[in-house]
Amino acid sequence: MRIVQLVENLEAGGLERMALDLAVAQHQLGHHVYIYCLHDRGKLADEAEAAGVRVTAFHKKPGLSFSVLVKLMRQMRRDRIDVVHTHNPGVHHYGALAGHFARGAVVLSTRHSAIDSQGRPYQERYFKLVTRWTAAIASVCDRTRVELIERAGIDRAKSVVVYNGIRLGPYRAQPAAAPGAGHPSRIRFGTIGRMVPAKAHNVLLDAFAIVRRELPGAELRLAGYGELEEALRQQAARLDLGGSVSFDRVTAVEAPDFYRSLDLFVLSSVNEGLPLVILEAMAAGLPIVSTRVGGISEVAVEGDAAWYCEPGSAVELAAAMIAAVRDPAELARKGAAARELAFSRYGVEHMAANYQKLIDRARG
User: Fold this and answer.
1) In a designed cystine with 226, which of 1, 195, 253, 340 is the match (CB 3.0 to 4.6 A)?
2) Domain match, 90 and 126 both
3) CB burial string 59-70: b at 16+ within 10 A, e below
């Protein structure tokens, strides 16, 4: 089978990593797999091609582009594409039209969240217009699926859930040391994520300031970068958190060691689908404290592997963080349970197999 994954670009984000890992897994299963980038290639493109997946960029500029649609159609004819798999509404109307009219291809779409990451309502209108040529719309969690049906009016019959998967290899050898094994007052909290409003790192910093009053030896490691980094550094200084907060740049290769350095993974987001960092932290053997957003509670089960609070409240997040570390034995048990869940359900192989079933059904 000849499959193309269509994305905006291959920059280093969760959507892009998921599309790349899925493409590589499909290539390893014997399919001819391509990645088309509607805009530019991005940082992960070389990794894709090193794994045998060709990347083609179409360099689309802002606004609708009929010429790019024609180029997509021509490329799909040259590559003899059977299946077009798009990611999010920003690219779906191009992929659905080009796939249907160029090759009569089966068109699938994955929605990584219920709203477009750029907040552009017109893309949702375009998305709905081309659902007639879309065989299935996969949401990365059930909460996203329900929101798309109820809010966006997506056809229930075409809506399915396919949970994200991650490469488990880097996490097989050594899990995190038993979380909480040290003294509770020296607990190390941490997170990985782009420093943008949706991740609400400002709420996490406010919460950690509260945590420090009860656990003066606690530490917080923030890994990532983004438009809010300098503002967050200034906030940490205003809160007088000193050396208890560190700001780190962590590559994909370094991420497993970063997770292993923590006792607890914390996510403070106000909007998510199913972030890969949750699955990675679980695979590393970390229990989770998170806001109740997206599909996180569907994979990190409350009471078994995680603690939850409502988004936007530093007081509630701090209370959950403190509750999580009260019993080191319970913390370690939930870390082990999180790791077992990740390895039994959320490897990239599981994800690829579920998408294969979806493709097989769509092709009849």
Assistant:
1) 195
2) yes
3) ebeeeebeebbe
Instruction: For residue 139, give every residue at least 6 positions away whose Cβ sits within 8 Å of its Cβ, in sequence order, or none.
Output: 110, 111, 114, 145, 148, 159, 160, 161, 162, 273
Structure token pair of residue 144: 């996203």
Name the residue range of residue 37's domain.
2-165+347-363
Query: From CA 177, how far away is CA 199, in angstroms rounded?
Result: 27
Which pLDDT band, with edges at 50, 70 and 90, does 123 fall under? confident
- Do 201 and 131 belong together in one domain? no
Q: What is the pLDDT of residues 155-172, one digit of tens each?
A: 999 999 999 999 999 998
**Residue 158 in tokens:** 């075409």
Q: How many domains does the structure of the chain reveal? A: 2
Here the CATH number for the domain that contains residue 334 is 3.40.50.2000
Give me the pLDDT at residue 103, please: 82
> Do 72 and 208 belong to one domain?
no
Please tell me the predicted confidence (pLDDT) of residue 364: 80
Predicted pLDDT at 177: 66
